[in-house]
Records
---
Amino acid sequence: MTGPGTIVIDTSAFISLATADSVEMVLEEYDVQTTETILEELVETAEYDDVHGTFGTVCRNLSGW
């Protein structure tokens, strides 16, 4: 295979990657696919006043969505 692989990420995976400080690398290295529902969940998660909200905001900002 040449070029980046494609991966599909759900909300939990985005948050986990952000928690491990890896989401930026994954977004740069892979063709990341997700759904509108997942993006909406990240927006909702970013509103939480806890660590998940922080990471939801990070994911949303890094993903450009």
Note: The chain has one domain: 6-63.
---
Amino acid sequence: MRGNAGLAARDPCAAAAMLARSRNRMQPELRGRLHGAK
């Protein structure tokens, strides 16, 4: 995660996208609930 911290400082958009991808991978059921509620 140290490399990602450096990337976040240089490219916040890419870091946000990476974080979103990891979150989607780890919690697909949570994503489904959030999208279903909206």
Note: The chain has one domain: 2-37.
---
Amino acid sequence: ADATNSTKLIYIQHNEILANKINETYLSIPTRLNIRLFDCYTFMSKILNDYLAYGFESLDNCWDTESGPTVIVNCKDITKRIFADEFHLTSTLQSLIAKQVYLVLGGSSLSSMSTRLTSMTEYVSFSVVFAILMLK
């Protein structure tokens, strides 16, 4: 428990330092560069703490891949789970994250994003991996 709390604190402090450094560096100079941050850690924590409100039925993995070469399916509907296996997010959660990133970083409506969502989900899932490892 102490190791988990220490890791969470490190992620939170890292995000705060990153935001401060970006503000110091880019807000103080004239530039056309537009940098916006999305706090995936906080968003994921919110989902994990209240997963039922987001339509998920359990925090358990849908697939058990730690039992050797055989995958054991532990759920009937993977769309109701956050984790596909011990390390990977389900496409349902990836879509939620992509929608939130789009809205937070300047999207005007969800209907205008449908064609861009697939590539955005691939981009976002890479950045989420580190937050997931420490939250689990």
Note: The first strand starts at residue 63 and ends at 64.
---
Amino acid sequence: MADSASSGKVTNNNETSSPNNSPHLAFTTISNIKLHILVQLSFSAPNYKKWSRLFRLLILRFNLKGFIDGTTIASSADDAEWYQFDALIQGWILSTITDEVSDLVLANNLSAHALWKAIYNLFHDNKHARAMQLEHRFRTTVKGQLSIEKYCRLLKNLSEYLDDVDAPVTEHALVLQVLQGLPHDIRGQVQFLHYQNPLPTFLEVRSALLLVEQQQNDSVYAAGAPSTALLSTGGGGNYAGSGHRQDRGSGYGSSGSSGSGGFGGGHGGGSGGRGRNFGSGSGGGNRGRDYPGHNGVKN
């Protein structure tokens, strides 16, 4: 096996590379594989297809595809260059999968090709039974209380899970299921989408549904705004004005002014209800009571 430092090319022949060749670009360019493969393969997310595609793109970038499909093999047990590349790719694989996955595939897989194949088999075992379960869930999913964003993402994830077990969902079927699972109030507003030819894409339908959802939210907000404003401006009406309802006022003075209310004496024309005059004078409190011993009032 040989490589070309200028192009980063690796061939699957048995030629030995020149000792003067510079290190391969794969060794000098990739310092952190997670910056190039942002997806971590796991059982908890439908990301096998995404992970494998990103990995293949990186492998193709450096012309190392033969190490995972098995077409590039060591020329001999002493082919140090081959073992260096194989170890590099194994490290890339193990760095981008979870411990849960690596624990199941690490043993007895001593090459990048064997490791790659074991991971593929792990995510495709019992695929027919899994496909049946996923298909049922996909067909019975409805929006319910989910937001449009979460609802669309759920169906998209289910379609990707099905793709992982070799039961791909066409975009046409995905769009129809998204529309089928909508509640009646939203479905009525996007009924026109059913009659478009060709049918809109998943992203186009998602955008239309998000717009409808936003319009509904705006309508609810607008309907509630006037009553809220009325409450804030009219709520203090009982406390405004000139104190005509200041029952049981706290004035004990002798010269209460108009509107000084109950328990107030004085000479003013107060209109407070049930006032009690503790002082002299002719306060006008309704149903006032004169207490003896003040200013010559008879005992």
Note: Residues 27-124 form one domain.
